[in-house]
Specification:
Length: 235
């Protein structure tokens, strides 16, 4: 996706998106489950890629406690401002601007000015919710995140895609309308007039790659089968 288009889009919709991200029925439960699937201990370091307005960050902070470190990465400034406001009370939650496909986090550890408690600089877990569908190569990004946490670390994905439940047709009709409305227009026109198919393919590729690279911790659906949650311990 053109990253400028995505940044403009999410920048413009930051306030509305924040409401949807935190208040949609079923989503707070999903966020709690996703944070649990990261299998964090107190004192751990967790990175959220594409953290948006920060809706997952309090759940992650709850898991790592005051002695752990939570880092949210996103490339859209206005959503990061909201994420910073949301987490202002925690001094161990950091929100940084960066590209999730080239995260400013590495084995040498350095995000500007952050002294992560884990001095190896390797996150214990990476979480990405509703993000991989926006990436040009979702499976490649999942590979990079798996490499970043290394064996024994955890990677967790949650994404919306067409439901496969028996009652899917009406649910998918609503889902498709939401995808069309929420896809930045340039992306929509550039590729095809059926953005949900493209989205489904990306989500499938990312979740399949995570399953291939890991031992399953969680593989479940939420919100009428539209939201898939996959979590794994990297082998
Ligand atoms: C649909 S929102 C999801 C936000 C959050 N993860 C949540 O669950 O509410 C997608 C977010 O991913 C961010 N994003 C997309 N591609 C990105 C990239 N390559 N690097 C960093 N952030 C990215 C966007 O700026 C946007 O805030």
């Amino acid at each position: 996706m053109g990253s400028e288009t995505a940044q403009e889009f999410y920048g413009r919709w930051a306030r509305f998106y924040d409401l949807v991200a935190r208040r949609t029925p079923g989503i707070p439960r999903l966020r709690r489950r996703a944070a649990a699937a990261c299998r964090l201990d107190r004192g751990d370091t967790v990175v959220e890629m594409g953290c948006g307005t920060g809706a997952n960050l309090p759940y992650l902070r709850e898991r790592v406690g005051p002695e752990g470190t939570v880092i949210g990465v996103d490339f859209t400034r206005p959503v990061l401002d909201r994420a910073r406001d949301l987490t202002a009370a925690y001094d161990n939650v950091h929100v940084v601007r960066g590209d999730a496909t080239q995260p400013p986090i590495g084995r040498a550890n350095e995000i500007d000015g952050i002294d992560a408690d884990d001095d190896r600089g390797i996150p214990d877990a990476i979480l990405a919710t509703f993000v991989v569908g926006m990436l040009a190569d979702p499976a490649g990004a999942v590979d990079d995140w798996c490499d970043l946490v290394g064996p024994g670390g955890h990677v967790v994905l949650a994404n919306a895609a067409s439901s496969r439940k028996w009652y899917a047709p009406p649910v998918n009709a609503v889902f498709r309308a939401i995808v069309v409305l929420s896809t930045p227009p340039t992306t929509k026109f550039r590729y095809e007039d059926d953005p949900h198919r493209r989205l489904d393919a990306k989500i499938d590729a990312a979740h399949t790659r995570l399953r291939d690279r890991s031992t399953a911790i969680a593989d479940e659906t939420h919100v009428f089968g539209v939201v898939r949650l996959t979590g794994g311990r990297i082998e």
